[in-house]
Request: fold
Amino acid sequence: MKESTSFTRFIMNKLTRNLPATVVIALSLVLMVVLGAVGGMSQVLNTFVTGGMWALLAVGLALVFGVMNVPHFAHGESFMIGAYVAYWVFNPIYQTLGEHPNAFLEVVAPFIGFLAAAVVGFVVGVLLERIIFAPLRRRTKSGWVMNAFLLTVGVSFVLTNGFTLAIGPNFRGIPRYWNIDTLTILGANVSADRIVAFFLAMITIFALWLFLRQTRTGRAIRAVSQDETGAELVGINLDFVYVLTFGLATATAALAGASLLFMFQAYPTVGGKPLYFAWYVVMLAGLGNVAGAILGGFIVALLQTATQQFFGPSWEDVIPVAVMILVLIAVPSGIFGSEVKGVQEQ
Reply:
């Protein structure tokens, strides 16, 4: 409850001091009402479900950028890895359940896939940080952001093409996780998979928020994001913070890929669209602003859903990007302000 109040206080503080944020949120609320009136409650619920997942992806992206100044363009491949892991873990269990039904395992099996995806994602993040970014950090500080950007783009190509060569470009997916009839919420039919995906995203984001605010390690991460040199002077282990940060960010993206396997089938380039929308969120909210990315995820999802409703699916990527460009022209640091220190100097 205390942390919920803290997050609410953060938002209200930003709104009272930030006219662009107030305007954007007010217009978003109006658009939500119009969308609900025209498209029905199903479109509103779809906005919340999609927004939760974009927020989960964007929080990891913002965390890496805020703490490490790394523009992580391989974040979509973390989503892809999570989707594959969930498929490889869940599908054998699902096939076994077809031969030997077990009510308890039917409920729990998807969560086993989610947990496996998050664990594998964390390990992959740790390995990437130690193998790629740690050596770069030891060798140079000059041009860090550009070098890190090029590295992540390279990692993206290696992972995408590596998976294509190793297992092929075939799609691997599932129709749904739970064989449960659609649920009716406020007159709209919603699948159990979408509801679970939304609450899983919210619980994960809230747990991360608690971790960053209430634990000693979380406060160390926040300290590094605010002043790396000062954090090192007071005894904070920067290497540990970097490893943990990258691991957590990769784990959240992998968890998103696993929970959305029923929507995004696993294939080597599946992370492209989630990556783009995560970056829309981060840039709209403000680079490195973890709390702002949460609200930004729902704003981008609202733009996406409203575009599909009023202009058609073919405009789904166009209008959200156009709105983001207009906002950034007016407010270059994003509606909640950038929390990345020294990017311009990098």
